[in-house]
Give the backbone structure.
Amino acid sequence: MERTANIDLAAWRPRQRAANPELSLRVFAGILIACACLSAFLASWLPLQLSVLTVFLFAGPHNWFELRYFLMRLPVRFGKSRNFFLTAFVGIGFLTIAYVALPVLYSFSLWPATAWPNILASWNTLLLLWLAILVWLRGKQKLKRDWSWAIPVALALCSLNWLAPEFFSLAIVYLHPLVALWFLDRHLGRTRPEWLRAYRRCLCLVPLLLAGMVWQLTRTPALADDNGLFWRITQHAGAQLLPNISSHVLVAVHVFLEMLHYAVWLIALPLIAYPRITEEAHLGVRPARTRRSAPTKRASGQFWDVKTVPLARHPRGFPKLVATALAFSAFLVAILWFGFSVDYTTTRDVYFTVAIAHVLAEAPFLLRML
Amino acid sequence: MKKFFSLGILCLLPAMAITSYADIARPKPSPSPQQPRIVLHTSLTIVPDNKAYEARLQISQSSLQELRAALSNTPGNESMAQRIAHSSTRTMLAGLFMFLSLSFAGVWLARSVQTRGQKAIAALLMGAAVIGAATIIARANAGPPGSWLWRKLPQNLSKGAPTNGGIDIEIVPDSNDGSGMKLIIPQRPE
């Protein structure tokens, strides 16, 4: 049972390496550096326009790839992780519904404006306590580690949150894109540990680029947010909460981080994510095709193939459910593009409200990788 | 008997009319006097000036912004300290969570560490948590009453020295005597 539950973990451990890993590593590092530098340059140059364009193009597809990645990481049977996943899914559902309900309740004017920071702080507190419970549950699965420090840390963060709930929410906006970099780090650690050192060196570039952007843009005038869309973008980046910082800096930094986030989910992880399908022969998993005819090509080019998802490939898996989930998500991506084309501003608002679900979903799956 | 009964009814009818004021329009409820509303707490310094010809009221830019925000019931551009100071609920909850955090950290440290020095740190954390809780309960951070700061105003005025103290800005209904603003200074017998 335990072997079945952890089948997906084994699937990520490499059995074979590329013929010339040094060259691939150079290419990978080169792509990382080029993406980071290009993102920083474009975000500094045309922050508002790039924000509109990147959200239009990449928001939906990156969510689709994220969902697929999470399905890849989901065990066929929860086994000893039952409580962890139960807590994770209940938390994701409840917090998402509560978050989506907030703007609806706001429109009904049920509470005075002064009460909303308290409501926001309450939601943030629930989020932090949920995260603390997840870390604690995950720590219970680790014999050699005690992760109960998460409880006092979460409570201290709750305290800070109640002092300034709006700033806490803004911190989530800026920190969430960085979680993707953490995912990539953990994934490299499992699949290509020899790349990890180079990757972490490349990561040092991010604070340097951020410092350079802030230094270059700090004296620039505020962006002209004279229309509803641009105003929303500057507000999302925290222009109202941080009036002493140029909105140009805020939007540029946020767009830069968002672009890194999209690049990780859309380029980096799909490129390196999937091991050779032939590896499944070592894992006791029935291959999608007969073993003799098992392909040796990388599955990275077959992201549309449901059988590359262990949850669908496993004999006791759920291929139809996985296929339906992926097909429905693809349909939602198409709907999102249609919505952006018809009414970009409203669709953007709706997207960033509903997208809290993927922000929340990242937490348990990242914890499973730690 | 029938005549007597009819007479009795006729006498009773005006009596009921007197009791119920049936022929008088119901008096309009007099508008309840509007209660003063405290919109802002700030500080005030009274400075005697023997060179001035007219009394002046000087308001700092930030106080004016706060006053505007308070009048319009919007948060305005408050600083972090002002936000915290203006929300006692949030401050209390922040204190409660900090207390819980220190308590849990102390327990966690005490359970997970073995050396004497680390146990001392754990004890310190627990102590800080207990003191924090005691502070919340005892309201030890509350300042002296406003009258205490104004107690030397008469002497200071006679000496020409300034006096500083807290002040609540209240919005009151227009008065009949035509006075625009009124400054009420608390005075307690020594």
User: Anything to note?
Assistant: Chain B has a mean pLDDT of 70. The longest strand of chain B covers residues 37-46. Chain B touches chain A at residues 73-75, 77, 80, 83-84, 87, 89-91, 93-98, 100-105, 108, 112 (CB under 8 Å).
